[in-house]
Amino acid sequence: MQNQQALGIDWIALAHVHHGLRKDSADRDEAFVKELARQLNVPLFIRHLDGEALKASGSIEENARKARYKALFEIAALSNCRAEAILTAHHANDQAETLLMRLRRGTSLKGLSGIRLFRSDGVYRPFLSVPRSEIEEYAAKHHLSWREDETNSDKAFERNFIRHAILPQIEAQNENAVNQLCFIAQLGAHVYKKILCQIERELEPQIVPPSLWPFPAEIAPYEHIVALHDSAWENLSQKSEKGAAELLRIWLQTLGFEFPASVDFKANFANRDKSLIFEKSRHILWFCRSLRDSKAHNLYLFEKKRAPLGDWRFRLDGDVYAPPSGRARPLKKWFEDNGVPAFVRDSLPVFSDGKQILQIYGVPPRIKETYE
Fold first, then answer.
1. Which of these, 61, 259, 351, 357, is most buried using a 10 Å CB contact count?
2. What residues contact 62, with CB distance under 8 A and at least 6 apart?
3. Mean pLDDT in order along the chain per 10 residues (372 residues)
4. In this predicted structure, what is the pLDDT of residue 274?
């Protein structure tokens, strides 16, 4: 608070998240923060989470982290808050522990960049380069007290095991280990940023805009879709046959597509996981995520287009399509020949007379094959 004016901070508040996992001690933590806010004369915002829900499935640590940030963003968006940034107290030891955790599990280039000092969503970690020991020395010198999360000593949690069992052994052999691990993370972040800029220059010009898709974008069953000309993949493979998949994965991560390292883009270029898919259709590579709850179009929207010859519906086995200029052939074959990807075919409304398809919504009779 003493440096608020010097740092150009107009307004500051405290935010505390009670995870509901440690009833008594967590209540004391909350009381401590309330008293601190009173002493500093700053606004305080508190959120209580459902501890049982956090323990229901998956990693408690990961569930708590996601729920905590969600709560902080909700607080920041309140009309009586409207915070421009969220500051957290991550320090250099947290960075070192994170890097060791990722190395222990196996990590990518992005993982080597460690915890980010700035995040694009407004999260900032001002103490990330400061070791815990220096923070404790400062607190002792200025007679500041703090609370310790009692679960921090439980080695059953991976981070605590790293903190209490592995990192001390490394520091016993190299007292500067924390700083060196932080330097590796900084170097990784710098290299990752440079590589990402190069990948973007290489791939973004190869993105196929929705106006050139072989189907109307509004009927797609996924909320987020990226269409990439396959020459982009070919160019990456020629420059780095072994690294092409990792480079593509890095680029997709920036667009919100978290494909795990186990995904091999070279194997037939097809993944049928309903929540996260990729496939190749003709000369376009399709990447999709966030499956919509229902088809984008309800058929009743097409009632006004009804004609005595048939009805609007979705495709069925055995459908045959005869475009105005062309011979009749199975609808599935027509989709394949015209580059309509498999993931969208069941969402395309068709107008039919029995098995005879008379019209396909939004798809011209003959698609101009721009990417031949």
1. 357
2. none
3. 71 93 88 95 95 88 92 95 93 96 86 90 94 94 89 82 93 94 94 91 94 91 93 84 82 86 67 75 90 60 57 90 81 92 91 87 53 35
4. 67
At which of 190, 206, 222 does a domain end? 206
- Residue ending a domain, choose from 206, 227, 246: 206
Which residues touch 139 (CB under 8 Å, ≥6 apart)? 145, 146
Residue position matching structure tokens 């229901």 = 56
Q: Examine the domain organization and report whether 338 and 303 are in the same domain.
A: yes
Nearest-angstrom CA–CA distance, 338 and 318? 18
Question: Rounded to an integer, what distance in angstroms lies between the CA atom of residue 98 and that of residue 62?
Answer: 13
Per DSSP, what are the bridge partners of residue 48? 18
Which residue segment(s) compose the domain that 337 sits in?
Answer: 299-360
Residue 369: inside a domain, yes or no? no
For the chain, what percentages of helix, strand and coil (3-state, to nearest 5) are there? 45, 15, 40
pLDDT value of position 366: 43
- 105 and 202 co-located in one domain: yes
| Contact predicate 313/352, CB 8 Å | yes
Q: Classify residue 58: in a domain, yes or no.
A: yes
**pLDDT (0 to 100) of residue 335:** 93
Alpha-carbon distances of 294 from 256, 342, 346, rounded to whole Å: 21, 17, 11
Per-residue pLDDT, 154: 79
201 plus 109 within the same structural domain: yes
With H, G, I as helix, E, B as strand and everything else as coil, classify residue 86. strand
Instruction: Tell whether 170 and 96 lie within a shared domain.
Output: yes
Is the same domain home to 72 and 97? Answer: no
